[in-house]
Description:
The protein is an alpha/beta fold. The chain folds into two domains: about 45-50 and about 340-425, Aspartate Aminotransferase, domain 1; about 55-335, Type I PLP-dependent aspartate aminotransferase-like (Major domain) (Aspartate Aminotransferase, domain 2), CATH 3.40.640. The protein contains 14 helices and 13 strands. It has helices spanning about 5-10, 25, 55-65, 80-100, 130-140, 155-165, 180-190, 215-220, 245-265, 305-315, 325-335, 335-360, 380-390, 415-425; strands spanning about 45, 125, 145-150, 165-170, 195-200, 225-230, 280-285, 300-305, 365, 370-375, 390-395, 395, 405-410. The strands form three sheets. It has a seven-stranded mixed beta sheet with strand order 2-8-7-6-5-3-4, sandwiched between helices. Strand 6, helix 9 (about 245-265) and strand 7 form a beta-alpha-beta unit. The N and C termini lie far apart (about 65 Å). Pyridoxal-5'-phosphate binds next to helix 5.
Amino acid sequence: MTSPDSAAAHTASGQGALPPPARLEVEHLQSYSAPLEGRRGLLRLDFNENTVGPSPKVVAAIRAIPADHYAIYPEYDGLRQAVVASLEACAGAVVSRQGAGTGGGAAVGTGTVAFPGFTADHVGLFNGVDAAIHAVFHAYGDRGDQLLTTSPSFGYYSPCALMQGMTIEAIPYHLPDFGFPLQEIHAALAAPQPPKLLLLCNPNNPTGTRLAAEAVLALAAAAPRTLVVVDELYEAFTGDSVLPVLAARARAAAAQAPAVGAVIGEIQLPEAADPFAAFPNLLVLRSLAKTAGLAGLRIGFAIGSPALVDRVSRVTGPYDINSFAVTAAFAALADQAYVEAYVAEVAQARDWLVAQLLAAGVRHHAAGGNYLLLWPRAEAAGVEARLRQAGILVRSMAGKPLIDGSLRVSLGTREQMQRFWAAYAAIEALQLA
Ligand SMILES: Cc1ncc(COP(=O)(O)O)c(C=O)c1O
């Protein structure tokens, strides 16, 4: 406890009076801050953002907001439905792309695939997925509860667990290819005292490790007492989401239902069942930050059974998402073609960069997501600094288990990757063919 005397001493020594102590966990917590200053005007390959910005339709929608609307609290009507509609449009685009056999081309905006049973109540709105993660821990994490996750993974899970006083078990990925530790996670879930929370990042940031949607569902089914949260921030780059799988199951169930109705002479088709009925412990996180290019506006979604979404939403403020983000989200969700085209561009840029890395013999690891890891021959921090001098930001993975000494490089357009590669090859004095 701080005595009035020691508070006065602090003032005298210029440190200012100490505030009343916060919760014990908070007093021990280091604030989570990413090095995000002074990035404008540089080629930002450090935070896996969209590197070209949002759809022009988003820009037009924001410009069209009348000034007097700034004075009005935000309204969220219709936004949750728009999220469901965008899932259907996204699945439609994937189907048409596969049908066209283009294998990654930009076949876009063609039709929808039904997600029966998905309703507005399945969608929670948050001030970015960071806020959704925070809300999950706030709603579910008690002192002494365990968080089960993988290592290395997204950096915000641990501080959220620590601020609740939770313990953390982080299971390492399998070297050499950062394979998912499926058996270990299953074993941990089967412990007599199972973890309160399992956080899976799929594909994983930063290793890109992918886990098939069916495997995620099997984990959730095996652990009904554990809340399983799947952070699908980068799923657009892999297509491994659990949501289309749940939708396909719901469609199959609905296809059975009319026959039953006909036998008993019902005219009205039964309402589609809740697609999360078998997975009341599963929550899926999605964001408009990365692919749609709205990182600065902060908006993300949590998708799960209505009862679960309701609980996680109880710990947020009534207006946590601002009106600009709402307007931008409507426009971005309606422009699936823009996202599809960006994802296709990134896929091509990735292939090009991986080919250069292979030809130059640079150790690298490229799996899911709009990022890859590479290991410079020179010390990583020095290479990172010299890239910054060349106007290019990448993220050093110094201190991260298994990947210490690597750089994480976000993938943008092919032109941007060419610029990165020219600078990197010069810094590392690579002999290029
Ligand atoms: C895996 C993962 N989850 C969540 C976030 C945060 O997303 P948002 O910008 O929607 O808060 C990030 C951002 O880097 C991330 O990489």
